[in-house]
Design brief:
This protein has a single domain, classed as Alpha-Beta Complex (Nucleoside Triphosphate Pyrophosphohydrolase), CATH 3.90.79.10. The protein is globular and about 55 Å long. Strands 1, 2, 3, 4, 5, 6 and 7 form a seven-stranded mixed sheet that branches. Helices cover 20% and strands 44% of the residues. With 163 residues, it is α+β, with helices and mostly antiparallel strands.
Length: 163
């Protein structure tokens, strides 16, 4: 079992499936985890940010694309482990987006490219990303996720938004 400090490092993040003309935008990762693999874009949810905001921000930061969120497609947990212990633990929200701009701007995160699901099967793709593309992105099943904003005044809590 991992020590307490590792157990507390569950990383909430999004995976952004940017889809255009039946192709998915992928990034060839230059850093860990999955360095050298092709993956969906994405990143960590920042404090005070909703899932959709993270998805649009991360895609823009990594690609320069402005995108419209179409749907939250699924949720998955991923635990990366070696023979002895868990090394990383991710809580991932898979979000599908449609680009509103088309000019890619590569960042230090890695090379970018558009690929069909069939092409991805012959590439070095993060194994869980390939499974999530098949399970969540290629299926037309949006997932209902609510955005809730709660205001606290002293000991009183009131829901301001339930979208």
């Amino acid at each position: 079992m991992a020590d307490k400090t590792k157990r507390e490092k569950i990383v909430p993040c999004i995976l952004a499936a940017v889809v255009n003309n039946n192709k998915i935008l992928m990034i060839h990762r230059t850093k860990e985890p999955y360095k050298g693999y092709w993956s969906m874009t994405g990143g960590k949810i920042e404090f005070g940010e909703h899932i959709e905001e993270t998805a649009a921000r991360e895609v823009f930061e990594e690609t320069g694309l402005k995108c419209k969120v179409e749907a939250i497609k699924g949720i998955a947990t991923e635990i990366v482990h070696n023979d002895k212990e868990a090394e990383q633990h991710f809580l991932m929200f898979i979000v599908q987006l449609r680009p509103e701009t088309t000019e890619l701007v590569e960042s230090k995160e890695g090379e970018l490219g558009w690929y069909t699901p069939k092409e991805l099967e012959n590439m070095k793709v993060t194994p869980s990303d390939l499974l999530m593309i098949k399970e969540f992105v290629l299926n037309d099943r949006p997932m209902k996720v609510h955005r809730i904003k709660v205001k606290r005044e002293g000991e009183i809590y009131d829901v301001e938004e339930f979208i």
